[in-house]
Amino acid sequence: MTHSYDESENQGRGPEEPVVVRDRRRVDPQTGQVRPPGPAHAAPEPDETPVEHAGPSLGESIVDDSVSVVSDVEKELAERTADLQRLQAEYANYRKRVERDREAVVIGAKATVVNDLLPLLDDLERAEQHGDLTGAFKAVGDKLISGLQRAGLESFGAEGEPFDPSVHEAVQHNTSPDVAGPTVTVVMRRGYRFGDRVLRAALVGVTDHEPGAAPGDPSVGGERPLGGGVDEQQQ
């Protein structure tokens, strides 16, 4: 009887529905990660409050912090690059200035040594003019002069040069119709320069053009050619 009673109850109720358990938790309790939206929690129940993405509240910045950080880094990198370029330029200028000063010191030292040898060069020149510079003495003198010239010594002050007050020291002055302007006609002491530096000015005698006379006019100074001029010969 018990078995027949149970069957009648089951026939009156109909087939039983399977029990479905839906896990609506957004965070997986085993992994601790947020679950992707699925059919189990696609639509929230009426008692659940939907999550809305509200805009920024009052006073909240909408600028992305990562963008501002990158901009600050780029700005600082540009400043450091400019500082490095400026430092390199200053160092290059410093090296050029040091090299220039060093070269000037070397040239100054050489010029000082050469300046002390100028009286010896004057003695050699006077000995040559008197014919005493011969034999081994002449060979030594030629080697000395050649070595000084290779080092940068240059002589100036010769007859026929235009007078230059920056390198010539005039101790005599004459006039003549044979020159067109101030000209060196007598050299009493040769001048020397070492590179761009004048070690000693040349002592010279200067002849200037005689006023009122053309260069090469033979009648200047009261002197006339023998036999008179051309007109007198024709007469």
UniProtKB/TrEMBL annotation:
It comes from the Bacteria. One of its GO terms (cellular component) is cytoplasm. CDD domains: GrpE (cd00446). InterPro entries: GrpE, GrpE_CC, GrpE_head. Keywords: Chaperone, Coiled coil, Cytoplasm, Stress response. Residues 1-66, 207-235 are annotated as: Disordered. It is found in: Cytoplasm. One of its GO terms (molecular function) is unfolded protein binding. Residues 14-28 have a biased composition (Basic and acidic residues). Its main location: cytoplasm. Residues 224-235 have a biased composition (Gly residues). Residues 70-104 form a coiled coil. One of its GO terms (biological process) is protein folding. Homodimer. Belongs to the GrpE family. Participates actively in the response to hyperosmotic and heat shock by preventing the aggregation of stress-denatured proteins, in association with DnaK and GrpE. It is the nucleotide exchange factor for DnaK and may function as a thermosensor. Unfolded proteins bind initially to DnaJ; upon interaction with the DnaJ-bound protein, DnaK hydrolyzes its bound ATP, resulting in the formation of a stable complex. GrpE releases ADP from DnaK; ATP binding to DnaK triggers the release of the substrate protein, thus completing the reaction cycle. This is Protein GrpE. It comes from Amycolatopsis vastitatis. The gene is grpE.
